[in-house]
Specification:
This is DUF1444 family protein. With about 260 residues, the protein is of the alpha+beta class. Among the domains are: about 80 residues, no CATH class; about 100 residues, no CATH class. Helix content is about 35%, strand content about 30%. It contains ten helices and 13 strands. It has a six-stranded antiparallel sheet with strand order 8-9-11-10-12-13. Strands 4, 5, 6 and 7 form a four-stranded antiparallel sheet that branches. Strand 5 and strand 6 form a beta hairpin. The longest helix has 16 residues.
């Protein structure tokens, strides 16, 4: 019988994904016309896209992107109802506003993207829903406070690397948890981290979740005119795109002051 989900040899990511999924005892239920993959696991009916994995695999030929996605899928096979057991794994990620958020707990940041609350398990992230808040018997503020507390702990490990370009300082986040680079900027502790080297308020670009540049107000004109090609290249050719906006971080919050 012909396998309905067999792809040509050139679809390397799908073929590796399917093979490794089956080794875990899981199978693909169906694939729709938009190439979304459906998998039944535990109490969940998952809708999976390989688009971001394909982009990242094309960028750096790293198979761990596939393994990380499968780990996230497997994490849906068990449900954790005990808030105390998972609260230290609560973080935030950023999603373009054209995403179908459904029941996902999210907050709008700019007209381009929103903050989504996530649970970090097995090197991947799954979205937190309003149903999860009910199961955990916590409020939205409890979730917000915990996410910022966890980011604060993460910021204690963050180093700001500075590159001097014609006398202008360009800052980069250095942290092992690369998928949280952009998230780190939204910690309440970020002011203390940057005030002595970049200054505060400051500007940032976060085209994708594992890439960000930060620079000072006095260097705004210099860098805003020079980072466009890098931002657009990351945004268009890497997985987990966020925005091409230039963001200003200040006491009054985060605002977009332009975009590439």
């Amino acid at each position: 019988m012909l396998n309905p989900f067999k792809r040509n040899k050139e679809d390397v990511v799908f073929n590796m994904f399917k093979e490794r999924l089956e080794k875990k005892g899981l199978t693909i239920k169906s694939i729709d016309e938009e190439d979304f993959i459906y998998i039944d696991i535990g109490e969940s009916d998952l809708k999976i896209s390989l688009e971001n994995v394909r982009l990242n695999y094309k960028r750096d030929s790293d198979e761990t992107h596939i393994d990380d996605l499968i780990d996230v899928i497997i994490s849906h096979s068990f449900k954790i109802d005990d808030w105390e057991k998972i609260k230290d794994k609560i973080y935030i990620q950023f999603i373009p506003n054209d995403f179908d958020f459904g029941n996902t707990v999210n907050e709008k940041v700019t007209n381009e993207f929103s903050k989504a609350f996530t649970l970090s398990l097995n090197n991947g992230y799954s979205f937190i829903t309003n149903d999860d808040l009910c199961d955990w018997n916590i409020s939205l503020k409890d979730l917000q406070d915990q996410a910022d507390f966890n980011l604060g702990i993460l910021l204690d490990k963050v180093k700001i690397e500075l590159e001097d370009i014609d006398g202008h300082k360009l800052g980069m986040i250095n942290i092992d948890e690369v998928s949280l680079k952009s998230s780190c900027l939204f910690s309440l502790k970020i002011k203390d981290l940057v005030k002595d080297n970049i200054g505060y308020p400051f500007y940032a670009v976060i085209p994708v979740r594992d890439f960000c540049y930060i620079f000072s107000e006095e260097d705004f004109e210099y860098f805003s005119q020079r980072l466009g090609s890098v931002v657009l290249d990351e945004y268009n050719n890497s997985g987990y795109a966020i925005t091409t906006e230039i963001l200003r971080f200040s006491e009054s919050g985060v605002e977009a002051i332009g975009k590439y």
